[in-house]
């Protein structure tokens, strides 16, 4: 595709964003009418609004309840077991999308129809036109994006069950995509589509090293996956240099398609192979890997990955490996249930990232949670939400917090996503949102309810106490331990030497970690501190220090249990997973408790 055609496509994409956002209210009403017209005769909708008529929209808004997965699960399982898709969707359910299962709770099956892939592709096709407005010349090199698939399962009646990213990478939309210099990947499709994540990672990183002087952007879906890749490279760079020098792929790669693709890439080096291998050996052999990303890929202009919400934990490590020289960019907001919107200001700092919800992706509504400084989390996921409380897309208010609710073409009606968002602005009529947290990830012992945002904020402040001791918190998770009375919060911390993130252990004095314990408690909310200090219904907070590499082992465990390497996010709270707790507890180096009670005023 020539440059003029690509430029035209980019301009048309930006015009489409303007059209959609200027007419957000009309587009949303049209989407809802289209969904109801298409699916109005399904068993689920008829239960609430009866047969199709000209009052469907008003009936929908007044009669259809906001639901959670437990409400729609019986219908999904009936379809998975062989009943007709018209239980919830007029179009055939072509696949079930497995949620990552690492944002709290177990994996869930989300219904998907063929046209959903068109919507996801539409959103993907907006990313480069947006990026080109801020960073020129991205068509003059390659993108080092680390993508992975996971082996599929099938429902009892044979419907494929897979992650949303596996669905996309295996679709014709990805595999048969037209040649596009803006999406020229270092990773061959054969490596991306390899089910063995170790072979896939090895081949993708090897290819990225071969093309190192052509790489203009680096990324993965989540920041955690990118850091896992760096850890993998630390263990395997010598083997990769040997492959480059000899032109022969390591014997550990047994996937035939991967071997063929990587052998072809290695053959392009010819007489330059020794030079390339020498350069990489010199860089990777240095005592410090600070700035390694910029050294290995010197032309890279930015890093693309999700670094919002709990992923912000990984920002210090990414900045260490890039020496803070590369912008960290979040391009889009999506989930297994639905793709939502895009970041129209991609160079915004991670803590200022906002996503513009595109009104043609689904019908969006919102449950109000609070205004400006008052972030309310007292509405349980199981609690009934009156239909009158829901707010539509164009009527949300600046500064207010909301829980996102979606209605899709594939059979989710007023489905509570569980994401808490704050309105940060508007693009034309379309609101822009900051992602705050997942509302169903909480610690609770008594009357307390600590959400992901508050936990992360308190840990972010407390971990500063480690800095004077050359210690860095690289990962954490939590657990509400009710095995004793009173129960207490347990935090698992992995700490390494701050000047050598390469899994180098560090010893921290007990008093320092104990002060971290109390610093966290001081930052938790009023109810927690009351329960802890006045009611004595919560015991002292505990930090359990674990050995370096523990959280990588946790990731391996959760992926083996059905998670996806693409979608993996370290669970900030361990719920009902005995094997995860066993792994964490088997890696404990030391354990410390708060030395005193936090302050509390009646």
UniProtKB/TrEMBL annotation:
Residues 453-576 form the GH3 C-terminal domain. Residues 355-438 form the GH3 middle domain. The keyword Membrane does not apply. Keywords: Ligase. Belongs to the IAA-amido conjugating enzyme family. The gene is GH3.9. It comes from Nicotiana attenuata (Coyote tobacco). This is Indole-3-acetic acid-amido synthetase gh3.9. One of its GO terms (molecular function) is acid-amino acid ligase activity. One of its GO terms (cellular component) is cytoplasm.
